[in-house]
From TrEMBL:
Belongs to the aldehyde dehydrogenase family. Residues 21-478 form the Aldehyde dehydrogenase domain. This is Aldehyde dehydrogenase family protein. Signal peptide: none annotated. The keyword Repressor does not apply. The active site is at 248. It comes from Gracilibacillus orientalis. Transmembrane segments: none annotated. Keywords: Oxidoreductase. SUPFAM superfamilies: ALDH-like. PANTHER family: ALDEHYDE DEHYDROGENASE-RELATED (PTHR11699). Pfam families: Aldedh. It comes from the Bacteria.
Length: 492
C-alpha cells in the first residue's frame, strides 16, 4: 500500500457511492506528495445517506444482539489482520510516528472488544417487582446517529462511536475529517462490509455536510468529537429537532507537579514529557500546561529538559528512532507557532527541546521543533488557549491551593494530572474540575477504555468509553404494569 495512491468513496446503503468531486490529502512529512483522495460529498449525498440509515433502523434495531456482536467481532478480526497497512496509511496522511498509529489502532480494537463483551449486560432489562405490580426498565436504540470526527485520532475517535452505536441497534452516518480521511475510511469500509447495507454509512466533506448531519430531522443523535467552537454551531443546528448529543471537545489539561514529586525519577519525568509531546502534542487530553511547586521549580525544569532532550527525536514517522513526527497541517503549525511567538514577544523564554534527526526533511514538511515556554503569565494565550501542538508552558505555583486555582482557571475541563506522593496527589485531584484526573501519569498513558471518558465545563457533554459509553447510544424505556390501575384521587 505504501506508494500507491489511495482513492476513497462514500458508503451509502452498503455500496461505494461516487461523488462528483474529490479532494487530495497531502503527506505532512512531504507536502508535495499526495497520499490519496477522499470524496467531497454534497448535501444531497448526505441526505441520501441519512434516508438510508433511517429506513434501515426499524429492522436493525430488532436484530438479535448475538448477531450484532458476531458481526462486530468479525470486523474486529479483519481490522486486526489489516493493521500494518492501515497504520502505515495513517502515518502517511497524518504524520504521526508509526508506533503511534499502531497504538491508535490497538486502543480502537481494545474498545471494540470491550463493547462486544459488555453490551449484552448493559442492555439487559431491569425488572422490578414492587408493591404496585411490576416495572420493566428497558434500554432502546435511539435511531440514526450522526458521527463527526476530527483529524488527530481519526480511527479511535470513529470506532469509539461506531461500536456502541451499532451494537445497541442504532444506524449511523459517519463523517471523518478531511485532514485525515483515508485510513479511517479503510476501517469503516471493513466494518460496514460486515453489517447489512444501510447500517453504517459514510460521507466525506466539510462544514456543509456537517451542518446537514446535525440538523436533518431524521437524525436522532449526534456523536461529535472536535473543537469547542464547532460544537457551538452543532448545538444550534440540532436545537430545532432536539437531538441527543455526546460532545467530546477541546481541553487545556493541567499537570500539577507537587513539592513531593521526585524530580530524579527518570521514568516519571519521561511519562510527563510523553504526555506533552506524543503525537506532536495534537491530542485533546495531552497535558497542555504544567504547574510546578515553586520549591522544586528550578530542579524540575532542569530535569524535565534532560528527559525531554532524551525522548524527543523529531523526524520521519517511518524512522523507528523517531518519537515525534510533523504537525498534521500547515494551518495548525502556524497557529501553534503564533502562540509561542506571542509568549516570546511578551518576555517569556522559549527553549527548544529534543533532536532533529533529518534537517532537510524538517524543512520540507510541517515540522516544528518542540519547545518549552518558561516565564509565561497565567493570562497569556499560550496558557489560556488549547495549543494542540508541540509546545508546553511551565509555570510555578505558591502552594497547593494556588495550584488548584490555576488548574481550574479555564473554560475547559477534559483531563488533568497530579504528580507527587500518591495520597497527596489524590487529595489534590479531588478538587480539580475535570472529567478525568490521572495520578503520576497523563494523556493516553493513563487512559483505560473500561472507564468513562469525557469533559466538564466547555470540554464536552456526556461520556465515551466504559459502560456509560455504551449506554450513551440508548434511551430508557419504562414499561409499567401497575396492579392498581385506577388512581384513588380521581373522582368517578
Ligand atoms: P474541528 O472542530 O475543526 O472539526 C471536527 C469535525 O467537525 C471535522 O470532521 C469537521 O469537518 C467537522 N465540522 C466542521 N464544521 C462543522 C459544522 N459547522 N458542523 C458540523 N461539523 C463540522 O476539530 P479538529 O480541528 O478536526 O480537531 C481538533 C479539536 O478536536 C481540538 O479542539 C481537540 O481538543 C478536539 N478533540 C477532542 C477530543 C475529546 O475526546 N474530547 C478528542 C480529540 C480531539
Amino acid at each position: 500500500m505504501s506508494e500507491s495512491l489511495i482513492k476513497i468513496e462514500a458508503i451509502i446503503n452498503g455500496e461505494k457511492y461516487k461523488a462528483e468531486k474529490q479532494a487530495p490529502r497531502e503527506n505532512p512529512t512531504h507536502p508535495d506528495e499526495i497520499v490519496g483522495y477522499a470524496p467531497v460529498n454534497t448535501v444531497e449525498d448526505t441526505i441520501r445517506a441519512i434516508d438510508v440509515a433511517h429506513d434501515t433502523f426499524t429492522t436493525w434495531r430488532e436484530t438479535p444482539i448475538e448477531e450484532r456482536i458476531k458481526r462486530m467481532r468479525s470486523a474486529i478480526q479483519k481490522i486486526k489482520d489489516n493493521t500494518p497497512e492501515i497504520a502505515e496509511l495513517l502515518s502517511r496522511e497524518h504524520g504521526k510516528a508509526l508506533y503511534d498509529s499502531e497504538g491508535e489502532i490497538g486502543v480502537s480494537l481494545m474498545w471494540m472488544e470491550y463493547a462486544c463483551d459488555n453490551v449484552t449486560e448493559v442492555l439487559k432489562n431491569e425488572v422490578q417487582a414492587h408493591d404496585n405490580g411490576k416495572t420493566i426498565i428497558a434500554k432502546d436504540a435511539i435511531g440514526v446517529v450522526s458521527a463527526i470526527t476530527p483529524w488527530n485520532y481519526p480511527i479511535s475517535l470513529s470506532t469509539i462511536k461506531v461500536a456502541p452505536a451499532l451494537l445497541t441497534g442504532n444506524t449511523m452516518v459517519l463523517k471523518p475529517s478531511p485532514l485525515a480521511p483515508l485510513a479511517v475510511s479503510k476501517v469503516i469500509e471493513i466494518i460496514a462490509d460486515e453489517f447489512p447495507p444501510g447500517v453504517l454509512n459514510m460521507v466525506h466533506g466539510e462544514a456543509e455536510v456537517g451542518v446537514e448531519l446535525t440538523s436533518n430531522p431524521k437524525v436522532a443523535k449526534i456523536a461529535f468529537t472536535g473543537g469547542t467552537d464547532t460544537a457551538k454551531h452543532i448545538m444550534k443546528a440540532a436545537a430545532d429537532t432536539i437531538k441527543h448529543m455526546t460532545l467530546e471537545l477541546g481541553g487545556n489539561d493541567a499537570a500539577i507537579v507537587l513539592r513531593d514529586f521526585d524530580v530524579n525519577d527518570e521514568k516519571a519525568m519521561r511519562r510527563l514529557v510523553i504526555s506533552n509531546f506524543l503525537t506532536a502534542g495534537q491530542i485533546c487530553m495531552i497535558a497542555k500546561r504544567i504547574y510546578v511547586d515553586k520549591s522544586i521549580y528550578d530542579q524540575f525544569v532542569e530535569k524535565y529538559m534532560e528527559a525531554a532532550n532524551k525522548w524527543i527525536r523529531v523526524g520521519d514517522p517511518f524512522d523507528e528512532n523517531v518519537t515525534v513526527g510533523p504537525v498534521n497541517n500547515q494551518k495548525q503549525a502556524k497557529y501553534v507557532q503564533s502562540l509561542v511567538d506571542d509568549a516570546e514577544g511578551k518576555g517569556a523564554k522559549v527553549v527548544k527541546l529534543g533532536k532533529i534527526l533529518d534537517q532537510d526533511l524538517f524543512e520540507e514538511g510541517y515540522f516544528m521543533q518542540p519547545t518549552v515556554v518558561l516565564g509565561a503569565d497565567q493570562n497569556d494565550p499560550i496558557v489560556v488557549k488549547e495549543q494542540f501542538g508541540p509546545t508546553v508552558p511551565i509555570l510555578p505555583f505558591e502552594n497547593d491551593q494556588h495550584a488548584i486555582e490555576l488548574a481550574n482557571d479555564s473554560i475547559f475541563g477534559l483531563t488533568s494530572s497530579v504528580w507527587g506522593k500518591e495520597e497527596h496527589a489524590i487529595e489534590i485531584a479531588k478538587h480539580i474540575q475535570a472529567g478525568t484526573t490521572m495520578i503520576n501519569t497523563a494523556a493516553i498513558q493513563g487512559l483505560d477504555v473500561r472507564f468513562p471518558f469525557g469533559g466538564v465545563k466547555q470540554s464536552g457533554v456526556g461520556r465515551e468509553y466504559g459502560k456509560e459509553g455504551i449506554l450513551a447510544y440508548t434511551d430508557t424505556h419504562v414499561i409499567n404494569v401497575p396492579e392498581n390501575l385506577d388512581l384513588p384521587y380521581i373522582p368517578e
